[in-house]
Design a protein that fits this description.
InterPro entries: IolE/XylAMocC-like, Xyl_isomerase-like_sf, Xyl_isomerase-like_TIM-brl. Keywords: Isomerase. The protein is of the alpha/beta class. It is built from 11 helices and 12 strands. The protein has an 8-stranded parallel beta sheet with strand order 1-12-9-8-7-6-5-2. A two-stranded antiparallel sheet has the order 3-4. Strands 10-11 form a two-stranded antiparallel ribbon. α10 crosses α11.
């Protein structure tokens, strides 16, 4: 069936209006809404497809590639990942690396130390400098200016070792600065900076502008008596928050575990309040879903991860909506 010139012009105009409306809607989101790829599953392309098409995202956080730590991926796998990102028009928020998620040499053994970390972070201390060099190269490959790190497996008494821990973080931060990169320290309950107050103290001790916080309220919430928002958040220097991980948690004293992960809209973290505060304070970097909760249906680990992440992403967007934020 032939299309008249008038119908063609009207169609083009309608498409232009639709594109403009989509762009305007995207621009209303103050954050880089994202998801960690392997929280959806181990198939990188499927994760990207779901992130872009089902979740409507323009950003993704990379932690592993096809079940391998990012820095262990082959050159061919990295090249394939780049093609997949381009196919789905996804940008990378940061590299969710395992940098310094290891034992500190000379320090007492940590109860948190494990040679079989869930997310393939078992890289010995002597290889950490090489790991950082790889990450710097990969950050350029994937077009991101952010690398996530930790501050070693948690010690029962970290005071005698804090200066050495900070020295290593400063050294890494200075290396990153030479490449215009941001080093993001995630507060992680299994590492020496776990709670919000500990994160605030670390940022005060290391004032480097390119050393910022990956603020994880769920991790902070695992500490008894901790109130991630508003109490902990108000203690943090807002201009030093460079990334946010989004998940939820409940404490289970007396149970098999002291805490359990939850969907984003269920648990002790007040995400509605936190989202309002982030917008109020001008935060405009990533808010990235790190599901962790595995309560969704499925008959394989990947199926359970995908269904759980779908449920958590819905909860995340519901919280954004209640906060008056459209993403």
């Amino acid at each position: 069936m032939a299309v008249s010139r008038r119908e063609f012009v009207l169609g083009v105009a309608a498409a232009a209006v639709s594109t403009k409306m989509i762009a305007q809607k995207t621009q209303t989101c103050p954050f880089r809404l994202a998801v960690i790829n392997d929280e959806i599953g181990t198939d990188f392309e499927r994760s990207c497809h779901i992130a872009a098409h089902d979740f409507g995202l323009s950003w993704i956080e990379i932690r592993t590639l096809w079940g391998k730590s990012l820095t262990d991926a082959s050159a061919d796998q990295v090249a394939e990942a780049k093609k997949i990102l381009a196919k789905y028009n996804l940008k990378v928020t940061d590299l969710a690396s395992p940098l310094f998620k290891t034992d500190l040499p000379g320090a007492p053994s940590s109860k948190s130390s494990t040679p079989h970390d869930t997310f393939h972070s078992d890289v010995p201390y002597k290889e950490q400098d090489e790991l950082l060099e790889k990450l710097i190269d990969l950050s350029k490959t994937f077009g991101t200016d952010r690398i996530r790190c930790f501050d070693f497996w948690r010690l029962q008494d970290q005071k005698p070792w804090r200066a050495e821990i900070n020295r290593k973080l400063i050294e890494a931060s200075e290396k990153c600065a030479k490449h215009d990169l941001i080093l993001l320290l995630e507060n992680e309950m299994a590492c020496n900076t776990g709670s919000g107050p500990e994160a605030a103290a670390l940022l005060a001790a290391i004032p480097n502008k390119n050393f910022m916080l990956n603020w994880d309220l769920g991790n902070s919430g695992t500490f008894p008596g901790d109130v991630p928002y508003p109490n902990d958040y108000e203690k943090l220097p807002k201009h030093r928050i460079g990334h946010v991980h989004c998940k939820n948690v409940k404490r289970t004293p007396g149970g098999k575990a002291e805490f359990q992960w939850q969907p984003v809209d269920v648990g002790l973290v007040d995400w509605v309040g936190q989202f309002k505060a982030l917008k109020r304070d001008g935060y405009h970097y990533a808010v990235s879903l790190e599901t962790h909760w595995r309560g969704g249906p499925g008959d394989t680990p990947d199926a359970i991860a995908e269904s759980s992440t779908r449920i958590s992403m819905k909860g995340l967007k519901d919280c954004l909506g209640k906060a008056g934020i459209s993403c």
